[in-house]
């Protein structure tokens, strides 16, 4: 692993409080690989051999059943994924593939579990990370079950605007096909939802989004911190 990557990994909440000795043990056993776009990294149902950390690029987490597929999340640097399966020594519940050229650190699951048993600070960080993930899942479920497709899109755009420092114009940064999947829609339903937002000061042209009046859109979206604020 390049020395330049180590501070970014060490700064992750998962690793920042563990002992230096145990952190170095993890790093000595890790693998670092660069993958081209659209490479499958893991497959749901397979045993969990590694904890993955994205240090460059982006990774899509997705699931499939009965001929259907859905996007679960997109992972950006520097972030770990599939922690629960690693700690439980269980099968992956999601698959993962690169969306672009990506560089990942792979930590052997056995090493992660061994240090979890020994390093109390690391164990607390793992519990905190899993609690954060649980709360995120609850919020995502509420978003899908309690809101219409138009409301889900409206709130997604409001959250994306916040990530873009409140700018009135910004890029989707995701294919509309994958956005539809993430929001629990078909591409056709997404197209209709985009048109339905036009009376609320929203225009989407290709990947370009313009929210002329955030307050106008918020009257439809009705954002709430109990769904829309990222879990801590």
What does the model show?
This protein has 232 residues and is an alpha+beta fold. Helices cover 44% and strands 24% of the residues. It is built from ten helices and eleven strands. The chain has helices at 6-10, 20-28, 83-88, 109-118, 120-146, 149-163, 176-182, 187-196, 214-221, 225-228, and strands at 31-35, 40-42, 50-56, 59-65, 68-75, 79-81, 95-98, 102-108, 169-171, 202-205, 208-211. It has a four-stranded antiparallel β-sheet with strand order 1-8-3-6. A four-stranded antiparallel β-sheet has the order 2-7-4-5. A hairpin with a 2-residue loop joins strand 4 (59-65) and strand 5. The longest helix is centred in the middle third of the chain and has 27 residues, at 120-146. The model has no long low-confidence stretch (mean pLDDT 95).
Write the layout of secondary structure elements.
Blueprint: H1 6-10, H2 20-28, E1 31-35, E2 40-42, E3 50-56, E4 59-65, E5 68-75, E6 79-81, H3 83-88, E7 95-98, E8 102-108, H4 109-118, H5 120-146, H6 149-163, E9 169-171, H7 176-182, H8 187-196, E10 202-205, E11 208-211, H9 214-221, H10 225-228
Antiparallel strand pairs: 1-8, 2-7, 3-6, 3-8, 4-5, 4-7, 9-11, 10-11
Helix pairs in contact: 4-5, 6-9
Total of DSSP H or I helical runs spanning 4+ residues: 10
Beta strand count: 11
Poorly predicted parts = none
Estimate the global geometry from the Cα principal axes.
elongated
Residue-averaged pLDDT, rounded? 95
Radius of gyration: 19 Å
């Amino acid at each position: 692993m390049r020395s330049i990557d180590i501070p970014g990994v060490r700064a992750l909440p998962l690793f920042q409080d563990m002992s230096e000795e145990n952190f170095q043990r993890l790093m000595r056993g890790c693998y670092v690989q660069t993958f081209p776009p659209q490479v499958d990294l893991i497959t749901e149902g397979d045993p969990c051999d590694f904890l993955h950390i994205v240090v460059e690029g982006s990774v899509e987490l997705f699931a499939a059943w009965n001929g259907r597929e859905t996007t679960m999340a997109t992972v950006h640097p520097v972030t770990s994924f599939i922690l629960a399966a690693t700690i439980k020594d269980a099968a992956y519940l999601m698959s993962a593939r690169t969306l672009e050229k990506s560089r990942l650190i792979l930590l052997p699951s056995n090493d992660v579990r061994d240090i979890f048993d020994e390093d109390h600070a690391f164990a607390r960080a793992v519990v905190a990370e899993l609690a954060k993930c649980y709360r995120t899942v609850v919020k995502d479920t509420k978003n899908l079950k309690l809101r219409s497709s138009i409301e889900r899109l409206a709130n997604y755009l409001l959250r994306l605007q916040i990530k873009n420092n409140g700018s009135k114009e910004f890029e989707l940064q995701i294919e509309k096909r994958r956005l539809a999947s993430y929001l629990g829609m078909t591409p056709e339903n997404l197209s209709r939802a985009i048109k339905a937002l036009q009376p609320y000061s929203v225009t989407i042209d290709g990947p370009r989004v313009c929210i002329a009046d955030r307050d106008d859109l918020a009257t439809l979206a009705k954002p709430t911190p109990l769904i829309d604020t990222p879990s801590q």
